[in-house]
Amino acid sequence: MVKMFSSADLLEMAIHLEEESEKFYKILQSKVEKEDLKRLFSYLAVQEHAHAITFKKIYYEIEKEGFVSAYPDEEANKYLHAWVESQVFIDWDELTKKTVWNKEEILDLAIRLEKDSLLFYYEVEPFIPEKDRKILSEIIKQEKDHLYQLTEFKKGMI
């Protein structure tokens, strides 16, 4: 039998993703010397922290109402499990042990993280309560902006 995700599970994953993203950007900030890149990663870390707080608020609101299964469709459920296991988690050992990073490599990692975040949010959007979708839409918009900023920064390097 396939494990079903509840809206609580989805929100916990979203919170975890945002907290991991914040940690990721703080580590990247510590690994670069270029001031404009440090500022960009600092800004992105603050944004990811704010997203985690937003998802925690949504979590506590719907916790009062009771959580429901989010992925009743077995095929969709399998897909989400596989995606979360393969994409959401960052290889922290590699990230922290590696001491020499080129700028393009760092930006590619950050771009991939933002793309993965967007994919996750699009997948869970139908299962977020209607009243909270406006908030999720705003977070998606901000994640797209992060992707744009990183992509433009990378273009400026080339």
From TrEMBL:
<dbReference type="InterPro" id="IPR009078">
    <property type="entry name" value="Ferritin-like_SF"/>
</dbReference>
<dbReference type="GO" id="GO:0016491">
    <property type="term" value="F:oxidoreductase activity"/>
</dbReference>
<dbReference type="InterPro" id="IPR003251">
    <property type="entry name" value="Rr_diiron-bd_dom"/>
</dbReference>
<dbReference type="Pfam" id="PF02915">
    <property type="entry name" value="Rubrerythrin"/>
</dbReference>
<dbReference type="GO" id="GO:0046872">
    <property type="term" value="F:metal ion binding"/>
</dbReference>
<feature type="domain" description="Rubrerythrin diiron-binding">
    <location>
        <begin position="9"/>
        <end position="151"/>
    </location>
</feature>
<protein>
    <submittedName>
        <fullName>Rubrerythrin</fullName>
    </submittedName>
</protein>
<dbReference type="InterPro" id="IPR012347">
    <property type="entry name" value="Ferritin-like"/>
</dbReference>
